[in-house]
Design a protein that fits this description.
There is one protein chain. The chain contains 5 helices and 12 strands. It is α/β, with parallel strands linked by helices. The chain has an 8-stranded mixed beta sheet, with helices on both faces. A two-stranded antiparallel ribbon has the order 2-3. The longest helix is centred in the C-terminal third of the chain and has 15 residues. The structure holds cytidine-5'-monophosphate (C5P). Its EC number is 4.1.1.36, 6.3.2.5. Its cofactor is FMN; Mg(2+). Pathway: Cofactor biosynthesis; coenzyme A biosynthesis; CoA from (R)-pantothenate: step 3/5; Cofactor biosynthesis; coenzyme A biosynthesis; CoA from (R)-pantothenate: step 2/5.
């Protein structure tokens, strides 16, 4: 990592998994630990950036020296990101954002006695924060903002995984997409990660494997190389 190469740059990182409430005691969540996003925030800080970490639910402590903004649901994250993106140079969307949320949030605990043997949940689509930012950018907003997305997929075949990544970066309108394979034992709670970074044309610009901190630095290298 080139020390100080992000000096004075404003970097916003989202990390962790969102939680969508069902009732006062339950939520729909995901297995994201926030480790990779937190490592990116820490690495950007170490390289001199002014870092805002927009944290959904994290299993690790946020790094020292960053501005912390907490957001629990996809819609809270959307508001925090929209605010922070306005004066950011780089936005890295590493958070695992719920694609759907319960259509109704019940204001007292759902009781099995009142439900019988099955309980049906109705879900509605959340805003796609990254895709909306990509679309705003295409319309001329956020000039100068570098937009980086993540794609966590369970697809075991590498070629198919990359194909999904290429379709996703086109759909989202990001500058870079970090593709990683996740599964029951891969990607989430572990300290290691293995990623492929695609550019807007769908070409591989970087492949990195190792600790989440070393992968974070390779991702930042790819962002710096865009200039
Ligand atoms: O479509 P998918 O969830 O695989 O896309 C992953 C990327 O899009 C991540 O960068 C994630 O933070 C972002 N995302 C988002 N809003 C959503 C879902 C995902 O910004 N509702």
């Amino acid at each position: 990592a080139a020390s100080g190469d992000l000096s004075g740059r404003r970097v916003v990182v989202t990390a962790g998994g969102t939680r969508e409430p069902l009732d006062p005691v339950r939520f729909l969540g995901n297995r994201s630990s926030g480790r990779q996003g937190v490592a990116i925030a820490a690495a950007a800080r170490a390289r001199g950036a002014e870092v805002t970490l927009i944290a959904a639910h994290l299993e690790v402590a946020p790094p020292e020296g960053v501005t912390l903004v907490e957001a629990s649901t996809a819609r809270e994250l959307q508001h925090a990101v929209t605010d922070a993106a306005a004066d950011a140079d780089i936005l890295v969307m590493a958070a695992a954002v719920a694609d759907y949320r319960p259509a109704v949030v019940v204001d007292s605990k759902i009781k099995k006695e009142a439900q019988g043997d099955t309980l049906e949940l109705s879900l509605v689509k959340n805003p796609d924060i990254l895709a909306e930012l990509g679309a705003s950018r295409r319309a001329g907003e956020y000039p100068g903002l570098r937009l980086v997305g993540f794609a966590a997929e369970t697809e075991p075949d590498q070629a198919a995984l990359l194909e999904m990544g290429r379709a996703k970066i086109a759909r989202k309108g990001a500058d870079l997409l970090v593709v990683n394979r996740v599964g029951w034992t891969q990607g989430f709670a572990t300290d290691g990660n293995s990623v492929v970074v695609l550019d807007g044309a769908g070409d591989i610009v970087s492949e990195a494997a190792g600790s989440k901190m070393s992968v974070a630095d390779r991702i930042l290298d790819a962002i710096v190389a865009l200039d």
